[in-house]
Write a structure and sequence with these properties.
The protein has helices at residues 2-20, 26-42, 189-192, 215-233; strands at residues 50-51, 69-70, 74-75, 79-82, 88-90, 95-103, 107-113, 119-129, 137-138, 143-147, 159-166, 169-171, 177-178, 194-195, 202-203. By secondary structure, it is α+β, with helices and mostly antiparallel strands. It is globular and about 50 Å long. The N and C termini lie far apart (44 Å).
Length: 236
Amino acid sequence: MRVVRALLLLVAVMIAGGLLRDRIPETAWDRFALPFRLMRLSTEPADVVLPVPVAGVHVRSVQDTWGAPRGTDRKHEGQDIFAPRGTPVRSATRGVVLRIGENRLGGKSVSVAGPGGRTYYYAHLDAYSAVLRVGQQVTPGTVLGFVGNTGNASGTPPHLHFAVYGPGGAMDPLPMLSDRSDSAPPASPSEREADPECALHGVIQPTGVEILKIEPVRLALDVVAEIETQERGASF
């Protein structure tokens, strides 16, 4: 019965949204549409191949750091991709932006929900793309930010910490990476503009709307919360 009510609510909200689309600011629309975009993504197959998310970097130059010791109680759950400071970081998948923000260990970071219930985490950014916003739809190639060494990477060579989380937990991204096609469009002038803080940062927050209780939406939010918890209690 709860699922039926949620689906009826979804239909009603979609109809209302369609009627009001032209009257709603783009940023507000992205947040409004996020739960529905997450549900659609959850029904699509997960990506098997991911283009390297750092511009100009080839797979052969990525040194495997998956599982390397981090502190005394955990292992590295991602890959470090080194590049000069300010190199564009592009989304490795289609999806929607779940979170833009800063934390003690990952520094400036972005979380993107992709197909198949996966979440992609980009950390240690020097700055965000000035046009990035929570709820925004992205494609492989969308500029998310720029390589840096914020967070606990301060003092190390600039690099991107790239992590992939599936329904079963962290996944090694390296076997999925492939060289990015030369046909990837150059960053637009607005994308190239770096924003150290990103005025549209934040994380989508659960509300009382019943649609947010549907499994794919709840799981995506849980992954972001889990990353935040790990960031507070461990190091890369």
